[in-house]
Amino acid sequence: QKLALYCCQRTIRNYYIGKTWKWWQIWIAIKPNLKCTQFSKYKAEYEQKIEVAEANIDKAIAECDAVVSVHDRLMNEKNELELALNSGGSAVQDIIDKTNRMENAKNDVQKQLDATNKRIDAERDVIDGIQQSGAKVSSDAQRLRDNIRNLEETIGKCED
Predict the structure, then answer these.
(1) How far apart are CA 37 and CA 44, in angstroms?
(2) In 1, 62, 120, 127, which residue has its Cα 20 to 30 A from 79's Cα atom?
(3) Would the pTM of this model clear 0.90, i.e. be above it?
(4) For residues 145 and 152, what is the distance between their CA atoms, to the nearest angstrom?
């Protein structure tokens, strides 16, 4: 206990002596702002950040695994399609050629159909014209028959 008392007395005496010392006053002024003196504060802050990161690491790993699996699946599909295009290039070209031939044949048939429809329309117009002519001829013939009958009646009356 006696040593502890001597230690306290020496510390208090040095404190009062140091209070007037200018370098010690500067040290006391800047010491609270130094990072090395606030180690426990920074340690607690970083430990808290580490806890948050560790809490979210499982979720991030799961999301990363999901993305990696989707990427692998897409890469496999891409490789299969590239293989199909490289190996089946001639088959694709054959299909394109067949499609072009079919389209040309379809266009030819469409042209023939359009020409046939035009001919049908023209023949219908001709038939309508013939029917109108026939109706006119029939009406003229009927008129002439009526005139002939009237003239025959007039001749018959004149003879009487």
Answers:
(1) 14
(2) 62
(3) no
(4) 10
